[in-house]
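Issue 218. Parser rejects a valid record. Input:
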Amino acid sequence: QVQLVESGGGLVQAGGSLRLSCAASGSIFSINSMGWYRQVPGKQRELVAAITSGGSTNYADSVKGRFTISMDNAKNTVFLQMNSLKPEDTAVYYCKADSRLPSFLRSIIWGQGTQVTVSS
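Output the parser choked on:
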């Protein structure tokens, strides 16, 4: 069983910054990748940024140059540094972990979500 605990959401003015954290715990053999997705009401959940355990990253075009994803492999924790925030970044942000259990079965789980609101 793997659990994710997210933190760092909140309300910020346009142009401001926030840092999201997501820690994975439980029966983890290894982490394949972790990432952040976001969703607004009435729309599909979309990828914001993802990172593999080897450090390869992938960003949505809308956040390139403003957001930075990083991972502390020793702590199974992923961070999303969000700078130059825009009102259109307002959404519920979800952490996703793709891991390998001690049984070598693959586990993909989602966090509970954290609200990010950017005021204009």
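Fixed in the parser; the record now loads. The CA atoms of residues 40 and 49 lie 16 Å apart.
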